[in-house]
Design a protein that fits this description.
single chain, 209 residues, alpha/beta, Ribosomal Protein L4, Chain: A, 6-stranded mixed β-sheet
Length: 209
Amino acid sequence: MKIDVYNIKGEKTSKKIDLPKEVFGIEPNDHAIYLDVKRIMASMRQGTHKTKERSEITGSVRKIRKQKGTGAARVGSIKNPIFRGGGRAFGPRPKDYDLKLNKKVKELARKSALSYKAAEKKVIVVEDFNFEDPKTKEYITFLDNLKINGKKSLFLTSIDNVNVYLSARNIPDAYICPPENVNTYEILNNESLVMTESAVKVINNILLN
């Protein structure tokens, strides 16, 4: 599948780039996407939730009242979970939510996400570029030229394009990521996928091997 390559002004160039069918044209596997997105979302959880249990509460261990003769239930400690201010019974503890997923399933999920974007014609390829200085206004102009300003967009470009990264960091719904680090959730969570020519090559090298 060949698509046009645009320049920074949003104009079509004479060049076309091939998006391999093995990466951008497969039959999407929804279950692989579900598993990978579930893994990614789970890994975002800090898992630092914690409540104090009975042994961690500060309080007297003196017996509150005598064992018998009061007509009430026996009580041993003010730190008992049944009392206000007592320790919590079976409270949450720090936990690692990371899920394991086979490498081939993750690759299939990414290919499926890219294939969805390509089928919807939401993939835009631009020539490699960088800004002389980090300027938010220049990146907004770039988005305007591609007619995607105001929409959630993901731009895949080399980490070396520091000025581009700095120019985009204050723009809501404009995300930038190195192609080698992009995941299934990021691809699907944005309306438009913009890539430089070199980013396409990096993705192909990763997913075709």
